[in-house]
Design a protein that fits this description.
Helix content: 10-25%
Number of strands: 12
Largest sheet: 7 strands, antiparallel
Structural class: alpha+beta
Number of domains: 1
CATH topology: Jelly Rolls
Order of helices and strands: EHEEHEEEEEEEEHHHE
Number of helices: 5
CATH class: Mainly Beta
Strand content: 15-25%
Radius of gyration: 20 Å
């Protein structure tokens, strides 16, 4: 069900009626068990870091694990995964207040660990192209306590087109998270991470969530190629043989299916 809101105009001449359209939520959660599980999560990440050089994505100078963290069998990461999936359900229910359809109780999820040593940062990006609904970042250790310490996450408006081409200014929000916090936002929102200052490493876990019950990304709808649009029945078995994923318009992004535990 689409929620429709009516806009009131200002009756005075030459006075603009300003309405802020389509706000993007940023939800901030704190895991009550963060301190208890912190050491085990760090150990699980370090175990994989010793065995792999990691991946190069948006990270500059940092270590990026494979995007398979929901499949790790470590007890601590499993607890975090289940807690985070429950928060995605809470975020959906909060954002869609008043709608009849209940929030999803299962999510397709991917996640990976990031370790940013001093000077490392992440370039601006979003996660909408693979049909994700929510994106999130959980801060394990080394999070900045203030924005003056570097390493803040920055959310930017890259879509307005109001600024001039030569302008370096954009509408942006900077946030300095704390250890044990998880930020969650719609996957189309562009975000980046400023260079890490100081002598410590910042360890975080990035996540994405998708549900077939939520609206598909418009970018995803136009992304599949000719064969995926017209012959998905042929392309799906070929993709499985290649270790790829379903790229049809109805397809879910690659990841792990996580059931929401209502006790979290």
């Amino acid at each position: 069900m689409t929620r429709i809101e009516f806009i009131n105009r200002n009756s005075a001449s030459n006075v603009a009626s300003q309405v802020n359209l389509f706000a993007a939520p940023l939800l901030i959660f704190r895991w009550e068990e963060a301190e208890y599980w912190q050491a085990e999560i760090l150990a699980a990440i370090e175990k994989r870091r010793r065995k792999s050089n990691g991946m190069q994505r948006t990270n500059i100078g940092g270590w990026h694990s494979k995007r398979d963290l929901p499949g790790w069998q470590d007890r601590a990461t499993q607890m975090l995964t289940r807690w985070a999936a429950a928060r995605a359900t809470d975020a959906t229910a909060q954002w869609r207040q008043g709608e009849q359809q209940p929030a999803p109780m299962q999510w397709r999820m991917d996640a990976w660990a990031n370790v940013n040593p001093p000077g490392a940062y992440n370039k601006a990006h979003d996660h909408v192209m693979l049909n994700w609904n929510w994106s999130a970042c959980y801060y394990v250790s080394g999070a900045p306590s203030t924005t003056d310490q570097g390493g803040a996450i920055v959310f930017e408006d890259l879509w307005s087109g109001v600024q001039t081409l030569k302008s370096a200014s954009r509408r942006s929000f900077r946030y300095a998270p704390s250890d044990g916090e998880m930020l969650m936002w719609p996957s189309w929102v562009s975000h980046r991470v400023e260079p890490q200052d100081g002598d410590n490493e910042r360890v975080s876990i990035a996540m994405n969530f998708h549900s077939p019950w939520l609206e598909r990304s418009r970018y995803w709808t136009h992304r599949p190629g000719f064969m995926w649009r017209n012959m998905p029945w042929l392309m799906r078995p070929l993709a499985r043989l290649r270790g790829s994923w379903d790229q049809s318009p109805e397809g879910a992004p690659p990841g792990f299916d996580i059931d929401v535990d209502e006790t979290f």
